[in-house]
Design a protein that fits this description.
This protein has six helices and four strands. With about 190 residues, the chain is α+β, with helices and mostly antiparallel strands. About 20% of the residues are buried.
Length: about 190
């Protein structure tokens, strides 16, 4: 019984590692698609880094940390990146309008802010965090698309899949058969 459970567990792990498709469904993926066309096909939580991925998640996140939208621009999504950058600059300008600077009688600089200033700064921080997360997400999805296209057009596809079957044996009894299949396509 332990051997059967162990074999079943190993078969499930092998399927999870080797038999998992990157995208759900049977969509018409082709080279040269725009990000908008294939972004809904992929779940970035399923991303697994592979050697040769063209987009760096770390670089995209770090770039968006220092300049909101720069990570998206590094990933090749100019419109998306410029949108985050413009939103950040717009909120900064609005927040600066709710700040008053003056000098007191002793020549010391005084700054007064109202309630809208703090709300605009919180919105700006939230936009910056969203920009970082979105840059990493874009890099993951673009890498998944690249892996899928590269894998589909490489010419070799290998899959491991478990199987479980009942095989008839003597005296009207069935015996359980458990194993792994290996499929290699050229």
């Amino acid at each position: 019984m332990r051997k059967t459970i162990l074999a079943l567990a190993l078969a499930m792990m092998a399927t999870a590692v080797f038999g998992q498709r990157m995208y759900q469904g049977d969509y018409d993926l082709r080279p040269g698609m725009s990000y908008r066309e294939y972004s809904d096909y992929y779940n970035p939580r399923l991303y697994q880094h592979q050697f040769g991925d063209p987009y760096s998640r770390f670089l995209a996140g770090a770039a968006s940390f220092f300049v909101p939208g720069l990570g998206q621009i590094c990933d090749g999504e100019w419109g998306r990146g410029l949108g985050f950058l413009a939103g950040n600059v717009g909120l900064a300008i609005l927040a600066n309008g709710h700040k008053t600077e003056y000098y007191d009688a002793y020549g010391h600089k005084q700054i007064e802010v109202d309630g809208a200033w703090s709300m605009l700064q919180l919105a700006r921080i939230a936009l910056n965090i969203w920009s970082i997360c979105d840059a990493v997400r874009v890099a993951k999805i673009k890498n998944m698309y690249y892996q899928d296209i590269y894998g589909r057009y490489s010419g070799i596809d290998a899959k491991f899949e478990p199987f479980f079957s009942c095989v008839p044996s003597g005296n009207q009894q069935n015996t359980a058969a458990l194993g792994m299949t290996f499929k290699l396509s050229f």
